[in-house]
Design goal:
alpha+beta; Jelly Rolls; 2 domains; 9 strands; 23% helix
């Protein structure tokens, strides 16, 4: 039922009924009725609610289908200048996250201070160091990370990672789109 998904997503975003009503332009009582299954929203209302949840209309019902398992194999591997990465999750319609594995040679970086942000507005990223040492450069701030450390930050801000060590560094990155509200 679409109403159950709307409620689950609204609560996951930390929205009250009034917050979603304001973000979508749909009245709080109408959102509540949809969530409780007391009414089926018109396409126009469903589109507004989806937009308030940072989804497209086509993504809203898709989220209500039976659970599926998608296994990613043969990850796409790319890289340059001492940085290799593998996109581990397949690109699917409505998918709001990606998981990648990165390897940095000593003295290498994922990018530079002048590089534009690669992630959409509101994105959050969590990086977990699997081996070696890593420096997260976020604007003018630097955060030193070692094996087992994790950092979560606003991924739509200029950032990159550097390996100042003498050994290769491997880390995982999980980027989730559109979670942070400005």
């Amino acid at each position: 039922m679409v109403g159950d998904r709307v409620k689950t997503l609204r609560e996951a975003m930390g929205f009250s009924l009034r917050d979603l009503a304001k973000a979508s332009g749909v009245s709080a009582p109408m959102v509540s009725q949809v969530e409780r299954g007391e009414t089926s929203p018109t396409l126009a209302i469903a589109e507004k609610i989806a937009s308030g949840l940072d989804l497209t209309l086509s993504q809203l019902p898709r989220l209500d289908e039976e659970p599926q398992v998608v296994v990613g194999r043969n990850a796409r591997i790319a890289g340059r200048d001492g940085h290799r990465y593998a996109e581990l999750t397949p690109s699917l319609p409505g998918q709001r996250h990606s998981v990648s594995r990165h390897t940095l040679r000593p003295k290498a970086a994922t990018g530079g201070p002048e590089d534009p942000p690669l992630h959409e507005p509101g994105s959050r990223e969590t990086a977990v160091v699997l081996e070696g040492t890593l420096v997260l450069v976020l604007g003018d701030d630097r955060y030193a990370l070692g094996r087992g450390d994790a950092a979560t930050f606003d991924a739509d801000l200029p950032h990159h990672f550097e390996n100042h060590g003498t050994k290769q560094t491997t880390f995982m990155a999980v980027v989730t789109a559109g979670l942070r509200r400005t």
